[in-house]
Specification:
The structure is a homodimer. Helices cover about 40% and strands about 15% of the residues of chain A. In chain A, helix 1 crosses helix 2 and helix 2 crosses helix 3. The structure holds a DNA duplex (30 and 30 nucleotides). Chains A, B: It comes from Pseudooceanicola sediminis.
Amino acid sequence: MVDMSTKKSRLTVADVASAANVSKATAARVLGGYGLASETARKAVLEAAERLGYQPNDLARSMSTGRSGLIGVVVGDIENAFFSLAVRGISDTARAAGLNVIISNSSEQITEEREMVSVLLRQRVAGLIVAPTDARQLDHLKSAITSGVPVVTLDRWSPDLPADAVCGDDRASAISVLQHLQGAGHRHVAYVTAMTSRSGRLAAPEDVGISAVRERIEGFLAASDQAGIPPPRQMVFTNATDDAATGRIVDKVLAESPRITALLASDSLVGARLFRALTNRGVRLPRDMSLVSWFDADWTRVTSPQISVVDQPTYLFGQRAAERLIRRLKGDTTEPLRLLIPTPLIDRGTVGPAPRCL
Amino acid sequence: MVDMSTKKSRLTVADVASAANVSKATAARVLGGYGLASETARKAVLEAAERLGYQPNDLARSMSTGRSGLIGVVVGDIENAFFSLAVRGISDTARAAGLNVIISNSSEQITEEREMVSVLLRQRVAGLIVAPTDARQLDHLKSAITSGVPVVTLDRWSPDLPADAVCGDDRASAISVLQHLQGAGHRHVAYVTAMTSRSGRLAAPEDVGISAVRERIEGFLAASDQAGIPPPRQMVFTNATDDAATGRIVDKVLAESPRITALLASDSLVGARLFRALTNRGVRLPRDMSLVSWFDADWTRVTSPQISVVDQPTYLFGQRAAERLIRRLKGDTTEPLRLLIPTPLIDRGTVGPAPRCL
DNA sequence: ACCAGATGTGACACCGGTATCATAAATAAA
DNA sequence: TTTATTTATGATACCGGTGTCACATCTGGT
C-alpha cells in the first residue's frame, strides 16, 4: 500500500453544497441523481459542481451502497491472445453496462489464482469471471458464491461449481478434429500443451486440471474408440512452455514408434512453437506431419501453408460471460447455465494424408 | 437450494471483536496490522477472524486512509500484443508492490481515453499509466497530475506534460532503419499505420497525434535529409485497420511512381496485414519489396522469410513504467523523467537490395 | 514505595458518500 | 378555509474501516 498523494483534500459534496447554498443532502441528491430536487436547487448545485470541478468519489459511493461497479477477471495469461481477446469482450460488454473491470493473471497456478480471487473479493467486486486453472480445486470460488458474489467461469467448467460457465465445445470439436484426421488416415496423434507436469507425459484425463483440455482428451479417446483404434497411451505431451522445451518435445515425437503423424497444439502459442520447431528440423507440413492448433491467432494465416485451426471465438466467450454475470448482478437466480460455444475446425493447409507407416 | 435472498451482511471488525471479547479498536489494530496489541489479544482476534472467515473490506480501508491500492492503466488496445505484453509487465510489477491494476481501452480515441481516465479517477486510483492517443490533447492528464494523481505515459510522450514517460527510442530506431534501408539502395519508403485519417495520407509529422509515430516520421525525414535524398512527400499511409483496407493500401503503394521499394509497418498487426496483402498479390519478399515491422510479435518468426523487425521490449516498458509510478507514489517529487528504451533493429529476412527503378 | 515511561485498551470522531425520516413549503382536494 | 397530498429540504444515522486520544495497567529506576 502506498501513499495516495499529497494530503490535498479533494472536493466533496459538502463543499459543493455550501458553494450552492443548499444542504449536503440536497447536493448529494442532485449529484447522485437520486431523490427529488427543485429545478432551482438542481441548477445551483450543478453550476457549483462545474465551477469547482467536483468529481464524485466512487469508493465512498460503493461503501455506502454496498455495491461496487467493479467486476474481477482472473485469466491464465493476458499475454496470450486467447485471453486478451476474451478480456476485450468482457471489458467492452461490462463498460457498456457501466461496470469497470479489474484483470488479474493466475499464470495457470492455483496458488496465484486463490490469491487473486481473494484480493478481488477484498476489493468487493460485484462479481467474478474466472478461467479456473484446476477443476479439482474450486473451494475459493465456491466460497465466493456462497458469500453472494456471482461467478462465471470462462473457457472452463466443473459440475461441482454452481456457477454459469461459458466454454467452447471442446469435446465435440476434439472429436471432429480427430475424425477429420482419421479420415486422412492418421492413427497416431499427439496432443501438446504448455501445461506443466512432472513426467512430461500424461495418460489419464483425470490428471488434467484444466477442464477444457481434459474434455478434448476425452473426446480423442471417444473418437479413437469409435473408430476401433486402440486408445492411444501417453498421447499428451506437457511442458511446451518455450521454444527450447518444445523442440525437445518435437524430438521425442519424431522418435516415437509407431510413428506419430499428426500434432495438436493446445493453444496458439504452443502452435507457433511447434511450427517453428518442426520447420527448423526440416519437417514439411503437411507432407511429413499434420498440425492442428486451437485458436485462430493472427499468425496462422501468414505461414505457408496456412495453419489448420480450431476457431475459438474468444471475444464472444468474453461477451457472453460478461452478459451472464450482468444478468446475475441484476438478480437472476435461475439455475446455473453452461453455455457451449461452437468451435469449428477450419482446415487450411496443415492437414494432409498420413504418411505411410513403415 | 441456495437462498440467494439472504441479506449478505459480510463480517466486519466489530463482529470479530465481539467474538474475541475485545473492543472494535483492538480487533482493528490486530487485523489491520497497525498499533499495539498484547499477545493474548492478538491471538484471540486472529483465532476469531479465522473461525468466522473474516475478510477485510479494502474499500472501507481506502476510504479512511485516503490511499487506494489501485493503479489505472489506459492503453490503445489490449488485444494488441504490444500492449498486452506491456500490461503484463505493469501487472507483475504492481502486484509485487501490493498494488492492483485496472485496465481500460481507449481504442486510440481521445474521447474514450478521457472517459476512461475520468472513471479511473472517480475510483480514486493512486496513479495512472496511460498511452495517450493524442499528444495535443492532454488536459485530462494534466488535471489528474495537478489534483495529485501521478501519471506515467507509456510508449508516448509530450514535452507539455509534467509526467514521467517510458518510451522506445523511436526517432533513433527510425533513423537506423532508414539508414539500413538506404544502405541497401532503397530511396522510396512508405510507412503504413492503422491510425485513422480522412485523406488516407499524411505529409506533416505535426498531424500525427501519437508521439511515437510522429517521432519515427521525423526520424525518416532527418535520415533522408542526411542522405541527401529529397524528403519524401505523403509517405505515410493511414487507415490500415483491417485486411481489406490494407489490401487497398498495398494496391496504391504498388501503383506509386517513383516505385516504392520498402514498407514499414507501424505495429505487428499492420505488419501481418501487409504481409498477407503482399503475398496474396504475389509480391515476393524481399526480392520485390522489403518490409520492416515494429514490434517483434510471435508470428514474425513463423513466416518464410522471417520478418525483419524493430524489437520493442514492451514487457520492459511496462515494468519500468510501473516502477516509476511506484516511486512517485512513495513520494518521489524529482523532475519528470523521460526513459528511453533502446529498440534495436533485428534484420531477419525481409530486407533485401532495392529492385532497380525503371 | 513512588513516580516516570512504556505498553495496552476502549471510546469515538472521521473518510465521502447514501438513505431514512421528520419537517417545511407548495399544491390539490374537500 | 381547512385538510389531505405532494414536493422539497435539511438533520442525521449509517457503511467498515483508520487513527487520535484519554485512561488503565504494567514495567523499572531510585
